[in-house]
TrEMBL record:
Transmembrane segments: none annotated. It comes from Nocardioides glacieisoli. This is ArsA family ATPase. Pfam families: ArsA_ATPase. GO terms for molecular function: ATP binding; ATP hydrolysis activity. SUPFAM superfamilies: P-loop containing nucleoside triphosphate hydrolases. It comes from the Bacteria. Residues 16-293 form the ArsA/GET3 Anion-transporting ATPase-like domain. InterPro entries: ArsA/GET3_ATPase-like, ATPase_ArsA/GET3, P-loop_NTPase.
Amino acid sequence: MPVLSIDALLDDRGTEIIVCCGSGGVGKTTTSAALALRAAERGRKVVVLTIDPARRLAQSMGIEALDNTPRPVADIETSGGGALDAMMLDMKRTFDEVVESQASPEKAKQILENPFYVALSSSFAGTQEYMAMEKLGQLHREALGQGTYDLIVVDTPPSRSALDFLDAPERLSSFLDGRLIRLLVAPARGPARLMTAGLSVVTNALGKILGSQMLRDVQMFVTALDTLFGSFRQRAEKTFALLQADGTAFIVVASPEPDALREAAYFVDRLTDDDMPLAGLVINRASPSARTELSAEEAISAADRLRAQDSSSLTAGLLQLHADRVRIIEREQHLRERFAASHPHVPTAVVPAMASDVHDLDGLREIGVRLADQA
């Protein structure tokens, strides 16, 4: 299989965005943080954005808490001119920032206090992913306009929902641009003559289902939002185009397990279908090589002979442990080869497992070294 050259990717100034995606529990957040740290210590000005609710990123970087504002990471090597900030998405705060930046104080207050807006910005399906892309767009504009950053690393949520950000902007914009919403907001937009008998029947029926106050909240919210932002679909298309741009690189993260690699195959196929720039696959927590010529079968045979002579033989137990380890390594190798056979053009980096969990910058540096060392 082709090898994923991490340092070449990080050193390429044409790489402006790296998006790490993968299923849960495969070390995706750690990989994102390690990539960001290595890039910063190689001279890039980096911000890493996580939308994973876990707090591991802040803990590993020595930051008391992450929020919607980039926070500098201390104690990194900056002799090359690099810098590293970290942040965690607050979807409601991001939505609020969009409102506040586009509206007059009076209009913003009207929207922010609208009950439908409060519900939408806090829990509406797809809002988190949409706001993650809004924040990515904000960071990208800031990076280009002010030179604050030249690389953005995005850590996505676990499971297949990690690719929901490819669909959620379209879903949310379709909802806000959709025929139903246009129908709901029509009475607030136009003159009374637009309230035809058919429209009146529909809105009256919706009022009974939703409640007249909620219907008014929706109408007021969508009308105010529409006058401020125009089409949400246009914003979603810009975000999608940014993800498809040459300066973006997707890295799929997996562990050497059947389910994780099956999910990785899904991610790779989906990114390919959507013409997203796939940099490659990172297989985390691989078992280190046994570095011996003794096969599992030979070890088991020898262990059986020793046990026949001494049932408590320590050597027999060690041989059995060796056989188990060799079989795990062989199974992982088989899984990687099977993935490579079905995706022969996907560059891959295999990262040996650490002896303990990563919980500080030194651990992240070691992960970065292992990512880059694919000789």
